[in-house]
Amino acid sequence: MTKEEGAFRTIGELSKELNIKPHILRYWEDQFPMLTPLKRAGARRHYRPEDVETVKLIHRLLNEEGYTIKGARKFLASQRKRPVMVENAPQRFPEALPLAESGFEDNSLILAELKSIREQLSQALRQA
């Protein structure tokens, strides 16, 4: 009997579905803070659909792509920090400045402004 796509799965069901031993799944929960299945009475784990996708990604990174646990953890953390692109979202940035056709001075001002923006973004990332 297979469950529907969006159904919660117990550790045993997920283990059989993905051919991963339950103790490996429990170990991954310790190693990957973003993997947090619901724990019900008696500490029974129930994996949500997003947990199942995270387990599949961890499995692929470790067993197919050759990542170490530390490398996979960094990869997953970087994925969580990426902004989500929303279709038809309002544009927040002013129109791009056109590069001057000629004249080194105009382009140097634009370049200086871009470097300033890059530094501001770098500082914001360090604080995040």
* Silhouette: elongated
Q: Helix count? A: 5
**What is the total domain count?**
2
Main-sheet strand order equals 1-3-2
**Which structural class do you get from the secondary structure elements?**
mainly alpha
Architecture of the largest domain in CATH?
Orthogonal Bundle
Level of helix content?
A: 40-55%
DSSP strand count = 3
CATH topology of the largest domain: Multidrug-efflux Transporter Regulator, Chain: A, Domain 2
> Distance between termini?
45 Å
CA-atom Rg in angstroms: 23 Å
What portion of residues belong to β-strands? 5-15%
Mean pLDDT comes to: 80
Poorly predicted regions are none
The run of helices and strands is EHHEEHHH
The largest sheet, given as strand count, sense and whether it forms a barrel, is:
3 strands, antiparallel
The top-level CATH class of the largest domain is Mainly Alpha
How would you describe this protein?
The chain is mainly alpha-helical and 128 residues long. It contains five helices and three strands; from the N terminus they run βααββααα. A three-stranded antiparallel beta sheet has the order 1-3-2. A hairpin with a 3-residue loop joins β2 (38-40) and β3 (44-47). The relative contact order is 0.08.
Please provide a brief summary of the model.
The protein is mainly α and 128 residues long.
